[in-house]
Design a protein that fits this description.
By secondary structure, this protein is mainly beta. The chain has strands spanning 85-86, 99-106, 116-118, 121-125, 132-136, 142-146, 153-155, 159-161, 170-172, 175-179, 184-189, 195-200, 218-220, 225-230, 242-247, 253-257, 273-275, 280-284, 300-304, 311-316, 331-335, 338-344, 349-354, 362-367, 393-395, 398-403, 412-417, 424-430, 439-441, 444-450, 457-463, 469-475, 484-486, 489-493, 498-503.
Amino acid sequence: MGRGLSALVLCATACAGGPSRLTQEGDGGSGVVAVADAGSDGGAPDSGLDAGEPPDSGVDAGTDAGPLGGGDWRQYRYDARGCSENPGTFAASEVPNLVQLWKPAELGQYVYTQAVVGDGLVVYTTAFSGKVVAFDERDGAFRWKRDDLTSLISTSCGGSKQTGYWSAAAIEGNVVYLASPDGNAYALRATDGSTIWAARIADPSAAGHGEFVQSSPAVSTAFGRLYLGVASSAHCDEVAGRIVAVDLATGAVQSQPLVDPGQQGATIWSSIAVAEDENRLYATTGNRIGPASAEPNAQAFLALDPHTLRVLDRWQNPTPLENSDFGSSPALVDAGGLKLVAATSKDGNLYVLRRNALSAGPLWTYPIATTDPTDPTVGGDPSAGFGSISTPAAAHGLLYAAGGRTPSGQLGQVVAFKPDTGGVVWQRDLPGYVLAPIAAAGEILAVEASAPDGSSSQLLILDAASGSILRSIPAPIATFAGPSIAHGAIFWTDAFGHAAAWGATVYRR
């Protein structure tokens, strides 16, 4: 868990995409800090939004490979690779035609997690009440619910509290996988929610320092395992970070610590990215406890072996700021002949590294958000609009990143980059801060933005080529859950648990 977070928050094969109109926009200036040989021109960001209509690239709507409206969205950030792109056709011209496909499902306060869609189901998890609820994807009809898989989490300093789920479910092979606050991973039958197996992965008791799994299951059928990180539930009682793997067939658990015996910190409260073709996992980690040199796996990017869970390579953020951990999950993107990994930090920066050379440090960085000027020695609190824990999305050979208050004084922003150089393709100021991952499908991006006081939020649909806002859907409270896109529908839930599907009917199967 990251310190100073005042509210609970939470691809194509190579996550690069093929040729499309999106790759043919001008890059403007880069606005990046080149730490390695980034090939950046070092100029100021150019939004590209004030010159009228974006130039015609010569590629028609609907040229993206994949089904109309995209296929299933089975895991947090779409799949185990975690690029947050559903390959398919979703034309920007269809956005004005979006209609509410079914009335909001009332999940109750609060929801912090992304909906997952597969096998005709939409599955939600809820905070505090600790429910897992499945609805029919097409009409929102109730299918089944489990509210008996949760428990209190206890620490020696904070007592007991009912957290509920801070992690999304996953649907693979007619099985729903969960990471429950009761310390177990579960496999449930997608047909009725009944239990197939339970696997002990964390100790939520005071004796276990209140271990809490906020990481959403990254399910790899190629490796026959799901991967999760273990984090803390209270800053006053930090746990020793570790990564776990659970066998999909048997529920057998393997665990690997990320700190030495007796140490605390280096937890993983983000989600794992699985690069099956590289035989590697990628993770981003939480706070160091004490000197950074004593915990090289803390506030870091890690590459790990998917079979042994051994750390193969790492880069630790050298910032002197306290609480500058990664709540952003790693996003994998291939561009310009480079295999890259990106994540935002609570220090306000977006970092992009070479996957085959993490220890060489960032290829480039970009100041995506500011930290709190009244508290200059710590990383930003993203739920107050400072820093970023928003996971980047990779689509069309571009990298899309978002965060809180900007260096220019805006409340939030989304920026599209050329991943290999850091060149800015476009930049869009937003009416609020962004916590959750961006979702991409066809020619659109879906992003949530919350008002600084938490009194409202918006689901914004953007043109992925220009950053133009095509549609805004309001909500009466802040949003912590990211949108997901499947079969021509955008699934979105505000913090009050009002869940709805907005769809382009031309794509609905």
